[in-house]
């Protein structure tokens, strides 16, 4: 269709939709088309002010078109027929301009400016009105005027001891002469000082004991700021008194009586004493007393500290066996002691979870299921013992000469998780941790394909800890994997492994028995979990990981003078072991424009180098491109490495792997209606090999690697349920490095049968 006709058709369509909206706009009123904040002084104020708008216009798909409003407007307002109800449920009612909401917005914007130091700021409201279309744009003009700054700062304290503490902490204070007179900064300083003072034993000191007095200097934009500290006011109405120090008295544990402290209830409980502490309980006390003390950060006789109370509460909340925890403090005014009662309720000890999901690998449908049995308090130390059983069945197409055309997998994993662990003794500042956990696991996995059968047996020991919100460290102390191939079909062996013309070393290596002894470390961080960044529109997450394998075994064999096998490898019990080093970096940036639209950018880099006892990487450690979470214009394991084209056979999935990986994606996400979301995306990336393997021509990484980068683009639909996100992505190839000439740029000459890829997945790609 010619461009002129397309534009004309779209213009007519939107004109008709605009007319349909009018029937929902009462006579004499206006549709709120937009709300704009204008600041000629500080554009940052206009950006911050968006969150203070009380009435917002109708939402837009991809920040372009108000499709939900037009869907709603297609309904008949005078009919309650099912199709009209459906349109109204799916759509969004036109937003009719509300003058009261505009006035509240104006007040909010003025308060925002004055709280940020613009004490004489005001906001004017203007309108851009289209009477014919009954549409209106509300314009909020910010007049900041002069900003006020703190010229002097002084402290007045009715309590000399508290005043001395604050004065001694002046170097850490956020309040300095010359700073903008910001209410947010004043509030942050109140919170900081309150936390510090309470951690020094002043249990009754509250944020309300700190107030401010501000005096403006005549004919200037300067403020004399005074911090006022008040005495403690007893609840019985007695005269105010200086704040007193409190110490921790008795520390007792209470199980199974709820989360409210009641002396009468305690009198009906059984009890047991352990190391000077009493454990009250009605039924089985669930946890060994030693475990309770290991998670306790309070100590009798020590000064009260709010941080230690919070640490204790957080530590108990990490115990798998517990559902709820509360800490009650009972004051003894005569002694200045705080008796502590740690109240906790048991979690459901055992559970069985069943999961069933559909799979789709390169267009081949399948089904997978998981059954997980969990005991959350196996040895009365809040140890979580889990047994997970797996089964999967999937069709394998495009195979000829094999006895079956399906892939089956089954397996079992037994794991034991508990808080803390042996490694805690070797990690500094254990008491400052927000999380520490040790996991032991053993696993067996059986894979039966038409071409071969494979068995994987593994055992692992890892330790996880966290020092700050959003950050997690994980150390894989031991991770042993034994890969065993009990049988290979004659057809596959003859065609690929024992080819007369070419010995495929990469394939051959991955169908021999192999031992992988991994030692690894990973670090993850998500800025949205930090209190300081929780409400920011731009957040990010990153993951960095490194691992190696086989070094101890290699040098051990070398030191002992062991002999190599016929392939030139050292062995352990006649089993060759892999030796490599691998590093990965993953970064995701999220920018939220409004409640319905966001932009997400993702980059993943990886490098793995085989050496010593290995000439190639094990298949499980090699990188692949394409698929639902990669360059989506290609199905999984059909892209790369480099310019490698492959033979087009389903058994060539090992050929499409490499030692270097790069994935870059940009995705614009929008909320459609109900629980449906959509996204448009562009992906780029590929994999490469470290060495120039003759089995993968054109796959080696070189100085012109950028010529091998593949590009694709597409559209996706996501169904966001409470527990799952079901995702469908449709993508087209844009640049295909496996071809040359015009076939290299399918974006200019697309072939749907050749360049289209469909993906069904659970969860977001990143």
Care to describe what's here?
Among the domains are: 3-58 and 94-143, membrane protein fhac (Ubiquitin-like (UB roll)); 149-229, Ubiquitin-like (UB roll) (Roll); 247-346, membrane protein fhac (Ubiquitin-like (UB roll)), CATH 3.10.20; 580-766, Porin. It has an 18-stranded mixed β-sheet that branches. It has a 5-stranded mixed β-sheet with strand order 8-9-7-11-10. Helix 1 crosses helix 3 (67-73) and helix 3 packs antiparallel against helix 4. Residues 5-12 have low confidence and may be disordered. It has 766 residues and is α+β, with helices and mostly antiparallel strands. The protein contains 14 helices and 31 strands. The chain is globular.
Entry summary:
This protein has 766 residues and is of the alpha+beta class. It has 14 helices and 31 strands.
Low-confidence stretches: 5-12
**How does the helix and strand content classify structurally?**
alpha+beta
CATH topology description of the domain at 580-766:
Porin
Write down the CATH class of the domain at 580-766: Mainly Beta
| Percent helix range | 10-25%
The CATH architecture category of the domain at 580-766 equals: Beta Barrel
> Biggest sheet, in brief?
18 strands, mixed
Proportion of residues in extended strands: 35-45%
Question: How far from one another are the termini?
Answer: 37 Å
Oligomer: single chain
Mean pLDDT: 87
CATH superfamily of the domain at 580-766: membrane protein fhac: a member of the omp85/tpsb transporter family
Inertia-based shape: globular
Radius of gyration: 33 Å
- Number of helical segments? 14
User: What is the β-strand count?
Assistant: 31
